[in-house]
Amino acid sequence: MALNGQYNRRGFLKVSGLLAAFAAIPTSVKAFYQDVKQYLVPKKNVSRLTLSVNKKSHTLYVDTRSTLLDLLREQLNLTGSKKGCDHGQCGACTIHIDGERALSCLTLAAMAQEKEITTIEGLAKGNELHPMQKAFVECDGFQCGYCTPGQIMSAVACVKEGHAGSVEEIKEYMSGNLCRCGAYNGIVQSIQKVAAQ
Amino acid sequence: MRPFNFEKVNSGAEASAAKSQNKQFVAGGTNLVDLMKKNITQPDILIDVTKALSNTIEHQNKGVTIGAMASNTKVATDKKILKDFPLLAKAILAGASPQIRNMASSAGNLLQRTRCPYFYDVTMPCNKRKPNSGCSAIEGENRMSAVAGYNNQCVAVHPSDFCVGLSALDATVTAVTKEKTEIKIPFSDFHKLPENTPWLDNNLPQDAVITNIEIPGNAFSKHSAYVKIRDRTSYAFALVSVAAAIDLDGINIKDVRLSSGGVAHKPWRWYKAEEFLRGKQATEAVFEEAAKLAVRDLKPLSDNAYKIPMLQGAIVTALKNCISQ
């Protein structure tokens, strides 16, 4: 059809022919397909959830399959938490659940009820950045910035847990957050800076 | 992910009563949610057991009872576990990331599935994922696979570090069945070898739910070590790992436990080497003899012969680390 990126007459005729054929299928056949599909493909289940995010309560209707990450990004427009791998391997989606760091991509939204969820958007106090956010800016703790919200959420927890005693300890306790730009040195410095405060 | 219904239960008995073939329990979700995303596990109904099971850690008579829902972090940071069973904390902290350890439950850790690449690749045969479809790893990518206890149906290894520690410390798994009867399974019988049913990882009855894990008191608290060798320094599954614990009487080994991850379909105890070490002096030469004895009967696959000298070295290092404390 589009050989080497070029359009040609044969391709155009094929596509327009197929489109015309599809349009000619009677709607009754299409409706029948929808009926069959209902039996073959399980229907999605939607449930009503109440979640507390950054000290604000939200009541939403959510597909049971929805992860907390998808809910935060798609329904609450809190796009700070990033979808990196979506399989719990990169840490870009790290948030705090009841004050502990957790992966929002492996948390089902339905299981996050009655818990206090904090995202990167909930760290700063108004226009005053969280000390860890300031430290990341000052120490060049990022390059492209995609992993940064997860790194910062993890870093805040790392200091709070008391695991910022040495460079080795910081590296071990930050190992769940990957950075493809390799800003690790700046990240470690940021954490040391905050831990010393 | 296939759509599913979501239910909550409030007690262990309620959970086991609710269990049936198309239903799955979910606790931390760190493994199951991922498997569901990849369409490897497709339950019709997901049962949330987080409120149904205990998350406490109770110490009594020198032993400890860990609630099924106690998070991996909670176990690894429990002050009395650090004092009486430091091997457990060392094993847990060698696994996963802080985020995952915060989320993952103790019982869930026991029930996690293998990380064999073919188990995760739905386009390839895998007896564990699809019964009787064949094993792709046996002649495929098998550098992470088993070197003992496997057969031509499955060469997968159990991925847990926590379980290696539990097997070394002779833990017991307590579960409750549909009839509300309590069953106790010794840890060495909890996980199974592939046999003719590689799709089953353990001997837990289908309708049972784990309520807690018990570890008896022991004399290993002063001399224990966990050595884990992996592709990167942190946050990776083991190529091989060794949990070692010695009850030392002067320079003599009164009792010893040796167990490994990355070796077989279940945490692998080195009974022969333990037997050899009992009553001997704790010297490097003796450790080297024991390690040689341990790896003697291992049968590597096409890509994992490296595991044998690696294990031998890891066993010696773990035993040496025990007595250097």
Give the SSE map:
The complex is a heterodimer of chains A (197) and B (325).
Chain A lengths: L1 E2 L2 E2 L1 H16 L2 H14 L5 E8 L2 E8 L4 H8 L18 E4 L2 E4 L12 E3 L12 H8 L9 H14 L5 H7 L10 H13 L1
Parallel strand pairs in A: 3-7
Antiparallel strand pairs in A: 1-2, 3-4, 5-6, 5-7
Chain B lengths: L4 E4 L3 H7 L4 E4 L5 H6 L7 E4 L8 E4 L2 E5 L4 H6 L1 H6 L1 H8 L4 H6 L2 H6 L5 H4 L41 H7 L3 E5 L5 E5 H4 L18 E7 L8 E7 L7 E12 L2 E10 L6 E2 L1 H7 L6 H12 L11 H17 L2
Parallel strand pairs in B: 1-3, 2-3
Antiparallel strand pairs in B: 4-5, 5-8, 6-7, 6-8, 9-10, 10-11, 11-12
**Could you give the order of the helices and strands of chain A?**
EEHHEEHEEEHHHH
Beta-strand content estimate of chain B:
15-25%
CATH top level of the domain at 224-323 in chain B?
Alpha Beta
* Structural class based on helices, strands and sheet pairing of chain B: alpha+beta
Q: Give the number of DSSP strands of chain A.
A: 7
**Share of residues in helices of chain B:** 25-40%
- Sequence of strands across the biggest β-sheet of chain A: 4-3-7-5-6
Terminal Cα span of chain A: 64 Å
Low-confidence stretches of chain A: none
Question: How would you describe what is shown here?
Answer:
The complex is a heterodimer of chains A (197) and B (325). By secondary structure, chain A is an alpha+beta fold. Chain A has 7 helices and 7 strands; from the N terminus they run E-E-H-H-E-E-H-E-E-E-H-H-H-H. In chain A, strand 1 (2-3) and strand 2 form a beta hairpin. The longest helix of chain A has 16 residues, at 9-24. Chain A has 3 domains: 2-40; 46-122, Beta-grasp domain (Ubiquitin-like (UB roll)); 131-196, Orthogonal Bundle (DNA polymerase, domain 1), CATH 1.10.150.120. In chain A, helix 4 (131-138) packs across helix 7 and helix 5 (148-161) packs parallel to helix 7. Chain B has 13 helices and 12 strands. The model of chain B has no long low-confidence stretch (mean pLDDT 96). With 325 residues, chain B is of the alpha+beta class. In chain B, helix 5 (86-93) packs antiparallel against helix 9 and helix 11 runs antiparallel to helix 12 (284-295). In chain B, a hairpin with a 5-residue loop joins strand 6 (172-176) and strand 7 (182-186). Chain B has a domain at 224-323: 2-Layer Sandwich (Enolase-like, domain 1). The chains are: A alpha+beta (197), B alpha+beta (325). The A-B interface holds A 42-45, 47, 63-65, 67, 86-88, 91, 94, 97, 100-103, 106-108, 110-111, 154, 157-158, 161, 163, 171-173, 175-177 and B 1-6, 26, 29-30, 33-34, 36-38, 44, 46, 48, 50, 73, 96-100, 102-103, 233-235.
